[in-house]
Amino acid sequence: MNLPASDVELLPENEKIEDGKERGHTFHCELYDTEIVRKIGQVFLPGLSSACVDNTTGDMFRSPGSVAVDVRKEMIDYLTQRSESFVAESVVLEGGPDAAVSDHPYDIISAMVDDFASLKRSLFGRVSGWLLSEKREDKIDDFMQEMETNGFWLLEKREAIAQILVKNVDYKNIFHCDKKFNTAEELAEHVVNCGFRTMNCTNEGCITVFCASQLEKHDSACPFKIIPCEQQCSENIMRREMDRHCITVCPMKIVNCPFYAVGCHSTVPQCMVQQHRSDNLHSHLLNTLKGIHNGASEEDLKRRVDQIVELSSGQLADDRDVRCLILKVKDLEAKLGPLEVKAAETFGEESNKAGDNGGEESIEAGNKGGDESTEVAKKGGEKSTGETSVEDKIGSEKSTEIINRVGEEFSSIQV
Ligand SMILES: [Zn+2]
Ligand SMILES: [Zn+2]
Ligand SMILES: [Zn+2]
Ligand SMILES: [Zn+2]
């Protein structure tokens, strides 16, 4: 590669002469939006690379590197001239068919870079097949890499040019300061307060540099800023950690009740789960018993719940999940003996009704769920359908078997 050292003078001719602080009898503030200038400085290298590659494609005697110095000079002159006449041209165009064109310096100058690159295409480079080929993209990337490695056109030099171009096209003075002063003292006084003076972000870990006028905008989006939890827990979290915090450890994260699988579809903040468990112990137990004594009447089961709660002397409220609860209930039920059922005359009717309800409810629970518990609930529902005889199960071996099965199936469910 025959790229020269990068310390050649790259500023356009007229700017070199004028580039003093003093122009006539006024003192100009030279500050500008560093972010935009940097962004524009970054489009020069890919632009130059594609201009050099397309210019030499199909010519076996010339490499992109052999034309880089000349093309770079042409590119700087082209951009300078276009930017200088930009304001006059856009005044003519204002209100015309092109009035909708963006007036953002980045868009304006990127488009100029693209225009330049397309002007430099060789005859072969103009063939549409080549322009769309992957090989072209690779070559442009490779050459850009080569220029970067060789320090052919340093960012700081590109930024110096970008700065001039921004001043030329930014006629609304949004991205550079155009203030003029009569004395150097006045200028110095202005510079320390100028909205375009650079500032460093003070949030720990952030290395962003921005214009003073952008401070608020950056601060409101800085990923390193420590802010209160979005879900209003008591913690302060770094903005970039917020999403993770909110869906993992945040005490205010909304979770399903741990007894979702047995039919409680409540959602609560995870810090309130324990409270919810003790507040709803009766209904959680009732739901659990429905799964075990499929077909038993609601009334019989409610009575059973009371017996179990009484016998448990408060220890059931600590159960964290379905598995723990089922194991304890199984234990307590063994002590209580067979489930007592109501008088015989209403028994048949009620148990059928309970059976239907139980079946429907567990199928419904299965449909609503979307996880492992769905399968469990569904299995329970399917297996229970048709089993309407309470007597068959109560106190029999089958009951133990069901308790074991449900226990095993739920054992994989964690809180
Ligand atoms: Zn200023
Ligand atoms: Zn920051
Ligand atoms: Zn939180
Ligand atoms: Zn619940």
- In percent, how much strand structure appears in the residues? 5-15%
pLDDT < 50 runs, ≥5 residues: 13-23, 344-415
Mean pLDDT: 79
What is the approximate shape?
Answer: elongated
The value of Rg in angstroms is: 38 Å
Major sheet characteristics: 3 strands, antiparallel
Give the quaternary arrangement of the chains.
single chain
* Strand and helix order: HEEHHHHHHEHEEHEEHEEHHHHHHHH
Secondary structural class: mainly alpha
How many strands appear in the DSSP assignment? 9
Q: How many helices does DSSP assign?
A: 18
| Share of helical residues | 55-70%
The largest sheet has its strands arranged as 1-2-3
Description:
A zinc finger (TRAF-type) spans 218-274. Residues 347-415 are annotated as: Disordered. The chain is mainly alpha-helical. It has 3 domains: 13-217, no CATH class; 223-252, no CATH class; 255-410, no CATH class. The protein is built from 18 helices and 9 strands. The strands form 4 sheets. A 3-stranded antiparallel β-sheet has the order 1-2-3. The protein is elongated. The relative contact order is 0.08. Mean pLDDT is 79; it is low at 13-23 and 344-415. The structure holds zinc ion (4 copies). The site of one zinc ion has 7 residues, from loops.
How would you sum up this structure in a few lines?
The chain has 415 residues and is mainly α. It has 18 helices and nine strands.
